[in-house]
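Cont'd.
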Amino acid sequence: MTKNEQNTSLDAIDHIAIQVANIQEALDWYGKHFKCTIEYQDNSWAYIKFANIHLALVVASQHPNHLAFIVDNAAKYGSLQTHRDGTKSVYVDDPAGNTIEFVESSTCK
Amino acid sequence: MTKNEQNTSLDAIDHIAIQVANIQEALDWYGKHFKCTIEYQDNSWAYIKFANIHLALVVASQHPNHLAFIVDNAAKYGSLQTHRDGTKSVYVDDPAGNTIEFVESSTCK
């Protein structure tokens, strides 16, 4: 990739997280309606792969609805918290109150 | 693409829509933090291209927060409504109340 291509490339949205009341019920619904792959699931979190993005199913007690981006210096947006998969990130509100997660790239596998 | 590849391919999420209070304010914020391209904007709607997906900024009076999928027979999910860009779609709630938009593929450019 040339420098020019790097400059003009766009950022990707790493994942979308939506709150659900019951993880298994939601997995059944998304699996029924769409071709997608469950990469992880337990009683409080699931991670579904689509062709272009991952969808996280979360519970309200653990995570807000959010859009996540992997960035090189997440700490500039606030104090990082460590998640159970080892990644570190910070949640920030956009001007309208939508939650954006900045995930530190160096903590991603 | 072989038949086998078609069978194993995953669906894509076409776009994510999030409600914002002020379209321009939100565009300024996303443009400041991310490499993305504004494909359309007016006072009540904006459409931003990221590397892997589009993000729609919408106002609460017009659209709910939602995830949109392009499908071949959207009408099976309910009565289609026509949008100003000519696409037809229907909004359906997942079991937790998250809004999913099924966009009829034949109405997409």
